[in-house]
Design a protein that fits this description.
50% helix, Aminopeptidase, alpha+beta, 10 strands, three-stranded antiparallel beta sheet, 2 domains, 21% strand
């Protein structure tokens, strides 16, 4: 699409400058040929314009040169970085070409060269201004006016909205094909440690803020330490993204939960609960499950208690850090 935009700009400026060079070389200045000597819709002339359209701002050629160059460059850079629909790309490219075409005239001649006179436009113009003649113009002017008209047309078309909706639909369909809405699977710590470490730090930073203690060991754990932690992991994936994880050790007949983390972007989606339920369902025969969490981490404490954990007690790890120990005995009927 960028090639199309640049191609239109170069082609339109080339046509504009070629006709201007021919006009300056072959048509005497201030000549306006009558309509009957040419096709009824167009006539040839050679006049100069030291201002903008309709000779506005006459005498302000240097200022107009700068404005045309800057505006054209700004539109082109914006368009190349974020291409629009085909119609909009053509429209903006014509506007850029028109602005730069007339700016080149200002740099070369000190004024803009005009040579095209339209009988049809004059007939329409005289409805508004009786007895007047539509201003003589050039190809650069047609680029600017044509580009604006195309933008007006584009505003009435549903193309952009439809394309946006179709792109959203295609993306959603692709996600649904490549990955289910969510999936819990075993994490291989040797290969997925980096993703897990990033998730863990984001999650524990929230807990550190919550309990007012920045010294949580897992928050400062290195990649090498994580890879050698000798824990087993389950990861919660949502559309292929690791959103949460739980780790544990199984010692004799005790399930020891070591860490439960959820990325802040996925809070309040029930991920922690699903991970715990999955873990407990994979080990239904253990006599007890133990876990520890910060005593000020009320959401975590409430979650564990809803899943059948009871508080055993509290220990002080540091001056501002208190840890609550919880235990869950094997229930008669395990609810998942």
């Amino acid at each position: 699409m960028q090639a199309l935009i640049i191609g239109i700009v170069i082609l339109w400026i080339g046509l504009d400058q070629a006709l201007k060079l021919w006009t300056v070389a072959n048509v005497p200045l201030n000549t306006v040929y009558p309509y009957q000597e040419f096709p009824s819709f167009m006539s040839l002339a050679h006049v100069i314009n030291k201002g903008a359209a309709w000779s506005l701002f006459s005498g302000a050629t240097p200022v107009l040169i700068v404005i045309r160059i800057i505006v054209g460059a700004g539109i082109l850079v914006w368009l190349l970085r974020k291409p629009k629909s085909l119609l909009e790309n053509v429209a903006f490219a014509l506007i850029v070409a028109g602005a730069w075409g007339n700016a080149i005239d200002g740099l070369r001649y000190g004024h803009v060269v005009d040579m095209l006179q339209s009988h049809w436009l004059t007939a329409i113009y005289r409805i508004i201004q009786p007895g007047s003649t539509f201003p003589i113009f050039n190809i650069a002017d047609t680029g600017v006016v044509g580009g604006v008209l195309l933008l007006v047309l584009a505003s009435f078309l549903p193309t952009k909205k439809l394309e946006s909706n179709q792109q959203t639909l295609n993306t959603k369909q692709t996600l649904e094909i490549t990955a289910p809405p969510f999936e819990i699977q075993v994490l291989t710590i040797e290969t997925q440690a980096e993703s897990l470490l990033e998730l863990q730090r984001a999650s524990y930073q929230v807990e550190a803020n919550l309990i007012g203690f920045a010294g949580i060991p897992a928050l400062h754990e290195t990649l090498e330490e994580l890879q050698h932690c000798q824990e087993s992991f389950y990861g919660f994936y949502t559309y292929g993204e690791l959103a949460g994880a739980v780790s544990y050790k199984l010692i004799d007949n005790t399930l020891d939960i070591h860490r439960l983390v959820v990325h802040p972007n996925h809070f309040r989606q029930g991920i922690a609960k699903r991970l715990l339920e999955h873990l407990l369902a994979q080990h239904p025969d253990v006599e007890k499950t133990i876990v520890q969490t910060g005593s000020r981490n009320i959401p975590a404490l409430q979650l564990y208690q809803r899943l059948g954990f009871t508080i055993l007690g509290e220990i002080t790890v540091a001056e501002n850090l208190h840890i609550t120990q919880l235990e869950r005995r094997k229930p008669d009927i395990l609810e998942v």
